[in-house]
Amino acid sequence: MTFRTFALAAATALAAFSAPALAKLSPQEAKMVAAVDKDHDRWIGVLEAITRQNSGSRNIPGVKKVAEMVTPELEKLGFKVEWVDQSAAKRAGHLIATRTGRPGSTKMLLIGHLDTVFEPDSPFQNVRRIDANTLEGPGIEDNKGGVITMFAALDAMQKADTLSAATITVVLTGDEEDAGDPIDIARADLIKWGQWADVALDFEGLSQVDGKDMGSIARRSSYSWQVNATGKEGHSSGIFSASAGHGAIYELARIIDQFHDELPEDKLTFNVGLIAGGSVAQLDTDLVRAQAAGKTNIIPAQAIARGDFRTLSDEQSERVKAKMQAIVAQHLPGTSAEIIFEQGYPPMAPTEGNRALLRKLNGINADLGLEQMAELDPLKRGAGDISFVARYVDGLVGMGPAGEGAHAPGETVDLPSIKRQAKRAAILMSRLAMEKR
To answer: What is the mean pLDDT of residues 72-83?
Structure first.
């Protein structure tokens, strides 16, 4: 065999090895894959631009500016774009974009967010290229990289002429990292579109374990709680007597200790984040700072603790709240206490409908020649906006890119994962659009 003959044979064998997966794609799907690759650099340029614009959750002008920057991209894709003001919830607002496709097609809700945890006073503001595959910047993975992944997928669908069949609503919230108050106002529009949809796809970051892409079908809740304990103020020499009682701080310590010992169960985490006690103890209006005053020889009259807990289902949330209430109600002599709950994000339970969507995504992985995505342990994900619609619609989490260091200076995004995720999303949405409902 000559060298030339050997080289041709080797090339043919390599093509035969790599072709079967892509051969399972339709011509339109193959066109989407090519479009994502071709337009990757342009989308990275848009990502850099929107990341340079600060959009901390409380930076109302900054969040609006990012919305203005991305609106033309959605309009070019045929979406009708609306800005929903959220001044009533003390936040900027939400960008909502809609388009109607084939009658009777799957109604898809795509979820992302415009805001980041980095407010204008954060020293972390710039975008920097780390290497060929990595960009660093504030919110570049969470969630500006997710927004760009969504847009790249939709653009690829348009170039392959599958977007015209799809009925899609995009909701990009402006306060995912610090939800507005009252939450009923802040999430009313998202919930409305969740009740409308057949499928919800959340474009927050792709989770990976040991370098492998994971499928996320669940997110845990995020509840805040506050315990207010009281006691009888008096001279410390009388502590634990029938007349003086145990004081507020011992009562609060009892409660927290029992939480530690009696609450643990599968998929539950709970935390004490702030505590104060003394003759006087009070919180600031934002509930993130405390002031206390007291003396070593005075039995404390007031004690406060704030924390959170996270659950995987509404049933688990109610069970945990009942346990906490029962512990708080026991009381040491001469004391009293109350517990107050505040729901931030509800749970997204791991339903069979969600698993069915992951199976469809894994079918696409097989067709693309990618590894199958196992279910991610929900302990490895925080709360998110899709949870507000999870009780109404089947969904998947983590359709955005992979990255590292989210919520901290030095946050990065993995650029190749944007391509991978955009291809998966474009094909999934195109196939869903052709299903009969």
So the answer is: 98
Show the 3-state SS of the chain.
CCHHHHHHHHHHHHHHHHHHHHHCCCHHHHHHHHHHHHCHHHHHHHHHHHHHCCCECCCHHHHHHHHHHHHHHHHHCCCEEEEEECHHHCCCEEEEEEECCCCCCCEEEEEEECCECCCCCCCCCCCEEEECCEEECCCCCCCHHHHHHHHHHHHHHHHCCCHHHCEEEEEEECCCCCCCCCHHHHCHHHHHHHHHCCEEEECCCCCEECCEECEECCECCEEEEEEEEECCCEEHHHCCCCCCCCCHHHHHHHHHHHHHHHCCCCCCEEEEEEEEEECEEEECCCCCCEEEECCCCEECCEEEEEEEEECCCHHHHHHHHHHHHHHHCCCCCCCEEEEEEEEEECCECCCHHHHHHHHHHHHHHHHHCCCCCCECCHHHCCCCHHHHCCCCCEEEECCCCCEECCCCCCCEEEHHHHHHHHHHHHHHHHHHHHCCC
Q: The whole model's pTM is what?
A: 0.87
Report the pLDDT value the prediction gives residue 288, as an integer from 0 to 100. 86
237-279, pLDDT tens digit by residue? 999 999 999 999 999 999 999 999 999 999 999 999 999 999 9
- Which segment of 12-16, 312-316, 346-350, 399-403 scores lowest on mean pLDDT? 12-16
pLDDT band at 12 (very low <50, low <70, confident <90, very high): very low
> For residue 330, which of 224, 236, 250 has the smallest C-alpha distance?
250
Residue 22: per-residue pLDDT? 61
- Whether the pLDDT of residue 13 is over 80: the answer is no
Residues 268-312 pLDDT 10s:
999 999 999 999 999 999 888 999 999 999 999 999 999 999 999
Angle at 36 between CA 32 and CA 39, to 5 degrees: 130
Q: Cα separations (Å) of 98 from 77, 198, 202, 291?
A: 10, 15, 16, 48
How does strand 412-414 pair with strand 134-136? antiparallel
